[in-house]
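hiii so my PI (J.) wants the whole complex modelled not just the main chain, which honestly fair. so below is everything: two entries, each one labled with what it is. i double checked the lines twice but i was tired so who knows lol
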Amino acid sequence: MNKGNQTGTTLFSGGAGRFVPVDHAAVHFTGGFWKSWQDTVRDITIPTQYMRLEEEKFLEVLDFRSPPGPLARPIQPSGLSMQHFFDSDFGKWIEAASYMLKYRRDPEIEARIDDIVARLGDGQMPDGYLNSWFIRREPEKRWTNLRDLHEMYSMGHLLEGAVAYFEATGKRAFLDIMLKAVDHIIETFGTEDGKLRGYDAHAEVELALMKLYRLTGEERHRQLASYFVDERGQMPSYFDEEARRRGEDPDDYVFHTYAYSQAHKPVREQEEVEGHAVRATYLFSAMADLAFETADPTLWTALEKLFAHMTAKLLYVTGGIGSSGDNEGFTRDFDLPNETAYAETCAAIALGFWVHRMAQIDLDSCYTDILELVAYNGALSGIARDGEHYFYENVLESHGQHRRWKWHYCPCCPTNIARFIASLGGYVYTSKPDALAVHLYAESEAKVMLGERAVTIRQDTAYPWDGDICLTLEPEEAMDFALCLRIPGWSDEARLTVNGEAVDLPAVMVKGYATLQRHWQRGDVIRLALPMPVERLHAHPDVSDAFGRVAIKRGPVVYCMEETDIGFPPQRLRLPQDASLEAHFDESLLGGATILKGHAMAADGAGWKDGLYARQKPAMIETAITAIPYHLWANREPGGMLVWLLED
Amino acid sequence: MNKGNQTGTTLFSGGAGRFVPVDHAAVHFTGGFWKSWQDTVRDITIPTQYMRLEEEKFLEVLDFRSPPGPLARPIQPSGLSMQHFFDSDFGKWIEAASYMLKYRRDPEIEARIDDIVARLGDGQMPDGYLNSWFIRREPEKRWTNLRDLHEMYSMGHLLEGAVAYFEATGKRAFLDIMLKAVDHIIETFGTEDGKLRGYDAHAEVELALMKLYRLTGEERHRQLASYFVDERGQMPSYFDEEARRRGEDPDDYVFHTYAYSQAHKPVREQEEVEGHAVRATYLFSAMADLAFETADPTLWTALEKLFAHMTAKLLYVTGGIGSSGDNEGFTRDFDLPNETAYAETCAAIALGFWVHRMAQIDLDSCYTDILELVAYNGALSGIARDGEHYFYENVLESHGQHRRWKWHYCPCCPTNIARFIASLGGYVYTSKPDALAVHLYAESEAKVMLGERAVTIRQDTAYPWDGDICLTLEPEEAMDFALCLRIPGWSDEARLTVNGEAVDLPAVMVKGYATLQRHWQRGDVIRLALPMPVERLHAHPDVSDAFGRVAIKRGPVVYCMEETDIGFPPQRLRLPQDASLEAHFDESLLGGATILKGHAMAADGAGWKDGLYARQKPAMIETAITAIPYHLWANREPGGMLVWLLED
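here's the output for the full assembly
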């Protein structure tokens, strides 16, 4: 993680452009792990999420021609109340669907999206304002409470959906609606006289505006994002001012501090990650996009500090972040409880968004190692293997009380994990005219542009179950470029050959990437071997809930033990220091996964006859154990689960 | 804990009356531990609690002649909002003060109480209804919501205060007010036509009515308590009925289940302890009072089952109960988290109330061992050594975020711990004409009635710091009776002599009590030696948060480690299995306490350079450690605290 003395200035002044992601649809997962998940998302997740939106009457609320219902907060048929930011759920669902449409058009899905778009168009106010909740139910509250009401957050997600749908289909209707909405925002907010000097407490529109900017190339779209980022946390706070306008005491704020929204001080002065985890990582993603586009070293410096703080003090071993449900976010350093972990699915995904952007500015595996970590663990655990049940909180320990749900009071995570998996191809490579960086390993074929020149790259691998990767390059013509292969931080014994010749890895390593600069020819074959021993990880001793315990990891995959495999709660286990765990591929486990088998000692719960407390220790008996990938937990019988195992 | 095949029937049919507690003021703590605490309560706690009631404008709200303020829920000067059941705080404060007045009258305190009583008298409605909140602010809500509004809970605490004040001073005004209030309740609630068939969801008035009954001897007071206990949990639920009367959907209940109030089924059918911990233990206390007075074996059978469940599955090693803040109560079996423990001070105290009553029916140390446990640990931890700061939640682990407070949103615990300590003399002995039972050991002198005959009993001891107790009996005349001495469950090596002659303990043990039946003379001396080795306790292996860990106990006192003593967070410690801990009396520690000293291994936090997760274990270094009594924690510098130490 040592970044040396590299500064923003040197980064931004250096060389021939920066790494940009490949279009996700240029990467085809041709088999194995991610193909299986993408198939599930396309065939199950996207259609069933639409069914939920129907069943739960979300679509009905979009029917602007009927009179609004009598309730300020309608109750969904499932008994859950509807949140006022439900436009965001449409937005993310359309975005997820669009990512799959870019691979393969689907008239049925498109008809549904077109219908939603038509409804939104019907509802949009003549001045461009668009938010179903407020138009239909509380028009008098429009733009009165940016602190709590998520109006621009909702618009931001609609905007991301509109950009993705346009890019997938070429249809402009949704994009035009959202361009009009963005114009309305530009007319309403800013530093100019007569405008409101506000910003949404839940960052999101900033990130969406950067996507729009990259589509339109219109400077004013980027400038609006800059304005929101620059204005955030300026004092006196706009949130105070608008609270007073509402006749409220600004101090009477349920979350007590604007750090909840990273709005307690200007973003460039923030050195520690605080507050709501999704707000934070959406904001940091937008800041990284702006740093990329504007080469603003002050933003980059802030991001580096924030990243260092988060990864040194606030990150679960699974890649989850935001340990507390009270603020859906961060607490004190090293406070990473297991059973009460919040570790919201959306937050892990947004961490993926952020580090992906960081690596575009600074190609360093400290970022992309975390991308890999969340992809296989803390984000993926948010969706069931059946593709239609979810976790909001991703605990690291359970006594069986945590079960996946079909729908939720705040259904933000399902569509988020859907869009993340659907667009995962976009995270595999970044490129610039003279380099191609490989961040993720997966059975796949892709056509990547290096500037104007195309390179086809095929990966043959059973990753993440096996660490042997064979990459075959097919440049459209032989050419010079640097192929940068991420050597995962978990791998100590990587071996690399090019066309059968061994590469001296230490000699070519640059910030965690094996950097192979050469004249590449059609059919060049690179073999990367990443041995995957079963590893035991220890946490910093101030992570109290992991002290004396070990987490099991193999390659990028974090493991856990489930009661359904071992027959008793895994909390009763002690893992001897010398106990070996052997990897086996189990085809029958939820579509196939590598599991770990071995022996450990377990407390004899049935044999304990001493009441609740006793002088003698519980008797320990040897027992066979099985560990499964953490992301696959809670897909079978209910029961206990544990990531951090007590070590003997 | 094996109660054999003893049943309620045999218990109630047996012998010459049952054990009754001595009047608390008959027991004088003449020095040592409890004298020090009682002095603090008299000199600091009771006066400062009155100051808080003044400062926080509680007394102002009692000024019925001024118009009510504009707010439905007034904000106190400390910024906390006032709860609608604040009458209960007056009631408990008057009760606590009265217990000390019974030792020594105090015109200043009495003038304050008389003033409150006069105000309450002014406010009482002509029909006897008395509840300051509802009379002053929401008269239309009177008796409309027994599920949520605590009206009878508040009246119950006023009634307990009135009984105690009458007993201490002979002044009738408060008692007369409350007798009129009770008459109003009798006229309003019951099974007769025209009455409401309700009961308060928060048990309390039942227990208060039993105190009144024992004062007045009026059967209708006992019958009202019986009615409330019998009616509780009958279906269809009164709470459903009254919710519908309010135009609400009964299913729209924030706590989801009436088990929250032990009202999900009739009390005699309840076999497991569920819901809000204080509600539960107040209810069970009233049930035990009724079982005592009515010899109803069905109540007793239920109580035995509930007690067995609580002690086998739901009790912290400190005596705390109710592990979750969500319902202020019980969750699943063995769910006893440390850092998020709720373990409300009031709940530990109420557990003391309950087991004290159980032992009046069945003299068994399984009950009184828990009385001792809560008195020295989980209840006493609720008050600071300065007598004017408090804990509501009594966690077993902290990273320094838990600090004692001066006042609280829900200030129920301060007056509860005050009344418990002030009346602790009443827990030391119970007696019947042919027996005297000693439950607690403490430097003290008492005059106890065995029927008509008085026995003076002196205890010379430095308990709980030392286990040698010398009891001297001074019966007014030589007489036969059984002296029953509790041999604590934690003591394996007790030794007993009577006038210097060793007693064969196993031969005289009956349900945990050494039962010495003889002709006692003036000056008989009983010496009980209870050696107090430092003990390590292990929890049932299904208490996951204690698995692999040990709690340290010496005699009745549970120990903890505090960062302020060891210089780093105790969560970094591993206690070797063979590490010895030596007891030392430290006069300088908060008025004097026995501390434990020894050595353990600590993770080298400063030396860890590996980021958040690493393959290597943290280096361990030997370190000197100090443990202090748990009840004394959080009286010095802020920092980490831990009860359950990781054992190597």
